[in-house]
Automatic annotation (TrEMBL):
Record keywords: Apoptosis, Cytoplasm, Golgi apparatus, Lyase, Neurogenesis, Notch signaling pathway, Transferase, Unfolded protein response
Primary subcellular site in the record, as a coarse category: cytoplasm
One of the GO BP terms on file: Notch signaling pathway
UniProt-recorded Gene Ontology molecular function terms: gamma-glutamylcyclotransferase activity; glutathione specific gamma-glutamylcyclotransferase activity; transferase activity
Pfam families linked: ChaC
Gene Ontology CC terms, in alphabetical order: cytosol; Golgi apparatus
Compartment list: Cytoplasm, Cytosol; Golgi apparatus, trans-Golgi network
Purpose: Catalyzes the cleavage of glutathione into 5-oxo-L-proline and a Cys-Gly dipeptide. Acts specifically on glutathione, but not on other gamma-glutamyl peptides. Glutathione depletion is an important factor for apoptosis initiation and execution. Acts as a pro-apoptotic component of the unfolded protein response pathway by mediating the pro-apoptotic effects of the ATF4-ATF3-DDIT3/CHOP cascade.
Protein name: Gamma-glutamylcyclotransferase
Source organism of this protein record: Oxylabes madagascariensis
């Protein structure tokens, strides 16, 4: 079984796997439109994490993990709790295209997608509003800022040829807000 990750699964799968491949799926774009009240946020201040939006002509880069034998049941049980029960995601099968030059056919992979029908779905917002929400959110897995920055770093390091305007625009908005936030905190400490 192959499992495609396009968010935190890229750097923190949390399950044993046999192999991994960087690549992409077609027909979906990555968006910070899913709310998170456990891993990267709380009930009071939900974080924002990524989901996939069906979009003709779009392409989303990430990593696919191959799980075999006893790894299958353990990984699916873990991911069901992490992604479905706690995250509000549903599963789908997609065609994963490895970036390797000698890759033959696409690989059928399982992917977790949060749809607008789940109660944690937040939907679209401006990059500035998403960044502002990310700055104030933290959950059991860490601060929401870490999630955004690790995802951006993953994309730069493993998928330098990929364009993800949405992701990098939010990162840019976050960076432009942080100096103001830092200055405000410094000013408060001095008074």
């Amino acid at each position: 079984v192959w499992i495609f990750g396009y968010g935190s699964l890229g750097w923190r799968p949390g399950f044993e796997f046999t192999s991994r491949k960087v690549g992409f799926i077609r027909g979906y774009s990555r968006r910070f439109w899913q709310g998170d009240t456990f891993h990267r946020g709380s009930e009071k201040t939900p974080g924002r994490v990524v989901t996939l939006l069906e979009e003709c002509g779009a392409c989303t880069w990430g990593v696919a993990y191959e799980v075999r034998g006893e790894q299958i049941a353990a990984s699916l049980e873990y991911l069901n709790m992490r992604e479905a029960v706690l995250g509000g995601y549903d599963t789908k099968l997609v065609k994963f295209h490895p970036q390797e030059k000698d890759a033959e056919e696409p690989i059928l992979a399982l992917v977790y997608i949060a749809t607008p029908q789940n109660p944690s779905y937040l939907g679209p917002a401006s990059e500035e509003d998403i960044a502002a929400q990310i700055i104030v959110s933290s959950g059991c897995a860490g601060h929401n800022i870490e999630y955004l920055l690790r995802l951006a770093d993953f994309m730069r390091y493993f998928c330098p040829q990929a364009e993800d305007k949405h992701l990098f625009s939010i990162e840019e908005a976050l960076i432009s807000i942080l100096p103001c936030l830092y200055y405000t905190e410094e000013s408060l400490e001095e008074t």
